[in-house]
Amino acid sequence: MSVEIPIDPETYDADDRGERRLVLEMDHEAAVERVREALTYAGFGIATEFTPSEMLNEAVDAGRDPYTIIGACNPGVADDALTETDGVMGGLFPCNFAIWAQEDGSQVVYHVSIMKLARLVGLAPNNDAWADIVERTGDYTEEAWAAIDQN
Questions:
Q1: What total number of domains does the chain contain?
Q2: In this predicted model, what pLDDT tens digit does every residue of 11-49 receive, in sequence order?
Q3: Threshold 0.70, pTM exceeds
Q4: Domain range for residue 138?
Q5: Does any domain span residue 3?
Q6: Which residues pair with 99 in a beta bridge?
Q7: What CATH number corresponds to the domain at position 89?
């Protein structure tokens, strides 16, 4: 059964969604530590961190390889985003960075911009203030990606 959605996802690309991914050639714990340090360096606070693979492996014997999510937040941008959206942006907080192990032992680091997604689905306004929030978040994220991608 197909469910109709109010937007056409095919009209948006990875850049529209603020989607990024890279592969790190290291073990899972080292990759998680690299992402954690890079986010802190770039001005994010670590709001939450959890490992769904452990929960799923325990609860339903999923057999998942390591998969960790780090929820990051830049307090100044978060405060502005909550103000600009009358609080609804909190439903998407924090900005998540997912790290998962691949069969070859490398780690994928993945992020999608909640600020861009909020605008695409109508949770955030289409105005200059929101454009500034997207740009500021993008600047912090770019700085984090540069630190994550160091060799």
A1: 1
A2: 899 999 999 999 999 999 999 999 999 999 999 999 999
A3: yes
A4: 15-145
A5: no
A6: 68, 109
A7: 3.30.310.70
